[in-house]
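HUMAN: You are asked to prepare a plain-text protein record giving the amino acid sequence and the backbone structure tokens, both parts labelled.

ASSISTANT:
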Amino acid sequence: MKLLARLPVLRSFGAPYRIKICSRAASTDFADYGALFREVPENFNFASDVLDKWSQKEKDGKRPSKPALWWISEKGEEVRWSFEELGALSRRAANVLSASCDLHKGDRVLVILPRIPEWWVVTVGCMRAGIVFLPATVLLTAKDILYRLQASKVKAVVTNDAVAPLVDSVASDCRFLKSRILVSEGGREGWLHFDSLLKAASDQHQPVKTRSQDPMTIYFTSGTTGYPKMVEHSCCNLGLGLAVAGRDWMGLDPEAMMWGLSDTGWVKFAFGAVYAPWLQGSCVFAHGQMQFEPTAVLNIEGRSVPLSSCENFEEDEPMHSEAAHNKESINKTVIKANY
């Protein structure tokens, strides 16, 4: 990926360490749990109120010299981004979405990407711009994608070479879709090239002011008994709600690393690979394997990674069900998950 090739942070694995499991005992003292939610601020943005605060601590020397995101590919490519580097890239992404794609606060974007660094860049960029992002698995079929585009009325889709042809095959039936953004080394007719736009964009961006109860992200359910339904999460729901999970259940702190093994299309990935660790200033570790390989997970060398007990080892299954095959009408209901 050109994005990775341009960055000076690519490096080889360091001295070998053993994988370790989170050993800190989960706290059962939740006396301050209620206070956390009684004191939810009127305005909250995870990018500016959490990630940028860790970035400032890095600049002030108040945070350990640990990466915010440590990613390796199946071929052994490696990237380590500090919170400051992640912040700069996500500000560029916010400018791409706002300027090049003409998206505004409250607009929706479907993000169909595997575990690659651009997934984090795009989603954090959406947070900064107040754009609602809808993560989805790369295992979707054309029919699945059509359903999601029509049900959610997204104005843009971000995906890779593998999924782009499926989007093109159904795009004519999606009247709200106006921008298609490709994350790839090459280009594709009718698509904006994310890497080129990111390189040309400014790294200066004023984050959009979002209220705590404004929508931030929407996840589709699995569709076990019918068509998948949209579950809306507010800015504070995941952005603040997982603070206790990261601190008291996962036992995370700025010295820790968290490895989330779920697919990016599932909300569990957000638990273990975005909000819970970054709320605690921990490093998010990710392996870019496209298909789960137990031996690859067990044999990773040169890393000290606390494994998350909340992640699944299973890949996504097709989002169809008996009700879907019976042509159940599209369910456009958005379930609000406020907890």
